[in-house]
Structures are given as structure tokens and as C-alpha cells.
Specification:
The chain has a single domain, classed as Aldolase class I (TIM Barrel, Alpha-Beta Barrel), CATH 3.20.20. The chain starts with about 35 loop residues before the first helix and ends with a strand. The strands form three sheets. The chain has an eight-stranded parallel sheet. The protein has a two-stranded antiparallel ribbon with strand order 1-12. It has a two-stranded antiparallel sheet with strand order 2-3. It is an alpha/beta fold. It contains 15 helices and twelve strands. Helix 2 packs antiparallel against helix 15, helix 5 runs parallel beside helix 6 and helix 5 packs parallel to helix 15.
Amino acid sequence: MKRRHFNQMMFSTAGHLRGSVDSNQPVAPFSPEENNENRISHIDQTVNIADVRLLAQRNMEKSSFDYVDTGSCDEYTLRDNIQAFQRIKVLPPLLTGVSRCDLSTVAMGEALSMPILLAPVAAQRMFHQEGGPAAVRAASTMKTLYAMSSSVGSSVEEIAQAAPCPKWFQLYVPKDRNVTRKLIERVNKSGFKAIVLTVDLGEWKDADHRNKFTLPKSMLVKHLRDIGFHHITNSMSQQDIQAFNEDAWDLNLSWDFIPWLRKHTHLPLLIKGVLRPQDARQAVHYGADGIIVSNHGGRRLDGMPSSIDSLPGIVEAVENDVEIYLDSGIRRGTDILKALALGARAVLIGRPYAWGLGAAGENGVRKVLQLLRDELINAMVATGCPSVHQINHSLLQRS
């Protein structure tokens, strides 16, 4: 989606939608050969996620592409998310061939065709004009799950009605608890299957500052009205809207918020942003139903450990008490196999399908899911796993 001018800075509810990195640094160590950029002109020509990224870079306005592509500060965590997967080796047993692989799984009680879910990603209308609804339709076609960001650019009702796949709602919390309560009531009523409380904070992305990344005023107004701030209108000045948005969100949450949330929803609750075993145990203590091991794709505090390196300790701490998921760093089907082998029930992908959305809208998201699914099938065949439930740590060698 080409967009030459941005009129309004958008702040995400927990980490402001701005930031960046040194444009001279390599963003992804998995980048393909440079000549692929001239060869790939259509989503059907892509053969891996790196190809999809190149096509998205060609199609998207630079500020929007850099917003989703880059990580915080020096991008140590962004790169380590990918490199940590590469450090884990797969040791397939011999003569354990399989003719068919069953990728089906269950996430928070919902049957899915594969353990690959779409993570919450903000500002999706900046990547493609159809935004979140296009991604929902792709998830529905592929019979998997879509997790809606509260900053996606569409209302709860618009996402709920886009297509009939299971959906989770990612909650960033307004300071006004009356607005929060009404938002949760809408989520309950709209058929969402779980609430994802994202708790990691802080975002400082050099590229976004360098690009002066902004969201058009009309999009920011829609976002705030979709949350429930109905007094916000396009007749207000940019300065007033920005000032309101900066102060609208509760960045001072404590564990005590979870009992309050439980009073207002019957839905399962997942805590996203967990990297420490003690925090995982605390989440269980407060009644969480699931944990998403995540460093927000390296978009939050730079220097945090990779999600995959953090996963085993959290599995050991709480494996039998809650469902455990992982996001950050997934680029290949073998990455998914490694995450499942280390105890994740499923993975959530963010950047890959955001690139798909920027590359070709709904078709691009569907292509990303197909590529990762087919690569996972290949990895399962190679390791003799007829079912995702038979993938285990005996297949791995960790350095």
C-alpha cells in the first residue's frame, strides 16, 4: 500500500508506534540473494518467507515497511530471535519414515488445522488497504486462528464478522476502566475465544524516528473510537488527539489487574510477553489459562533473550498447568518443529504474515501460512513424526 504522507503519530497502547534501527544494519540473516528482488514480482513466485519480505518491501511505502520490519535500538534481540533457532540442530532418527503428517492441534479448546497462528499485529491497514479483515479471511481459509491487535485498525465487530475462524483479542488496557469494561463486553459478545493480555512494555525503534513514521489522523481517530473513546472526532486538532492518545493507556498495570479482568469475562486468558520462569509461575498463580513466550519480536527492550532460548525454562516451570505458546523469530518450518519439540503447543507469527499482507493482501497472508505449513510437513517427514504431538526434544541437539 503506497502512502506518501502521514498526518498523525500513532502510539500503540503499551509501546508507542514509533521507533527504528540503523538502516545500514542487516535486518534478517536469512535474507536471500540480492538478485531475487528483481526476479520476484508476484506472490506466486515466492518460495520462502524471505521472498515474501522482498516483495513486501517493493510494494509498501518505506515508512510502513520499516515500521513492521525493524526492531528496537540496535536490533540485538531481533537478530538473536532468528539466530537462536539456527543454533538448535535437528538430529532426525533413521528408518522412521512416514507417509502422511497430521498437523492438527487444539488451542484453547479450538480445533485447528495446524500449529501456526496469526499473532496480534498493529496498524495492518498501513500494510494493505484491507488490513486485518484480509488476514482474518486468510486464517479462515487455512483453518487456523487469528489474534486481533486492539490497534489493528478495525473494530472488534469488523474483525469478528470478517470470516468464521477462531479469534483471540489482544488487550491493551485503557486507564478508564469503564471504557475497558465496555470493550471487554463487546469482545465477549462478538464471539472471541480468548483474551491475550500483552504485558511487555517499551519500544524505541530508530527507523521509525528517522522516517518520522506516523499514522494518518483519520486512522488514529478510527482506532480510538473503535476502542470506545467516542468523544474523539476528526474535528479535533492533531495535537489534541495525539495528547489524548499518549495519556489514554494504563502503563502501570500490576498482577492485581487479572482478578479485575476475570470479573468481566468468561473467556480464557493468556499472558503474552513472558520470558522468566518466575513470571510464568505468577501468571499461573493468578489464574492464567495460557502463556505466550515472547519478546515482542525484538520490538520492545533491546537486549532481552530470544523467545526460543527462554521457552525450556518456562515449560519446566509450568508445563502441566497451562497451555504454552511461542512467538518471535519464526521464519521456517524447522523453527516451528524446534518450538514444538521444546514444549510449545503452537507458534504465533507476526512479521511473516505482515510481510504477506504488504506483499499481496489476503493472498499474501495465505501464501505465508502455506509456505510454513509445507516446510513443517517436510521437517516432520524428515524426522519421522506422523503427528505434531509426537514432536519432542529427542529430535534436537542444543549447543
